[in-house]
Write a structure and sequence with these properties.
flat; single chain; mainly alpha
């Protein structure tokens, strides 16, 4: 008998978590960009420069404000900087499953979620303060919403992708193509 989908997906998600916790607890030194994002987030969290008017900032604000919220909740620490990326990476596994299930069915969706869980790039970028896990999460979620014929939600999620990292603009043609293909 086949295993229930929810059980397999739970196992895949737990595997993703376990693999992403290895670099999380390995205490890799912060990359200089992570330190910079942390500094900007501290300026926001402390209230000294909540609009980031004094430093030259070359990133959209969403991830910086998420990091600032974490710093306010947990204090200035590695946990506050790196936990959001880990959460985004785990959510990406679930969103990838949802997108692939709508596009290709349950079997392919489980394979896609499993492959993402095992992806070295996804594993190593998960426990970081980089914007990439958030960009990927919002882009795949926008594509899923487009497949589900939800143009407003797709646009909102695409906006969150762009607000996470400028390269989110590269997802616009894909999301529009999916909306058009779905008759939206």
């Amino acid at each position: 008998a086949a295993w229930p989908t929810w059980l397999v997906l739970s196992g895949v998600t737990l595997l993703a978590l376990a693999l992403r916790l290895v670099p999380f607890f390995a205490a890799y030194p912060r990359h200089r960009d992570e330190a910079l994002y942390g500094y900007w987030a501290r300026l926001i969290a402390s209230g000294r420069d909540p609009l980031l008017l004094s430093p030259w900032v070359d990133k959209p604000p969403l991830v910086l404000y998420l990091l600032a919220a974490e710093i306010r909740a947990f204090g200035a620490s590695e946990l506050a900087l790196r936990l959001p990326g880990l959460i985004a990476s785990l959510l990406l596994v679930l969103v990838t499953f949802g997108f692939a299930r709508r596009a290709y069915g349950v079997r392919v969706a489980l394979i896609a979620a499993g492959l993402l869980s095992l992806s070295p790039f996804a594993i190593l970028f998960a426990p970081t303060a980089f914007t990439d896990p958030w960009l990927a999460l919002w882009l795949v979620a926008a594509a899923w919403a487009a497949l589900a014929r939800r143009p407003f939600v797709a646009g909102l999620l695409l906006g969150l992708a762009v607000a996470s990292k400028q390269q989110g603009m590269l997802g616009v043609p894909l999301v529009f193509a999916l909306l058009i293909a779905q008759g939206g």
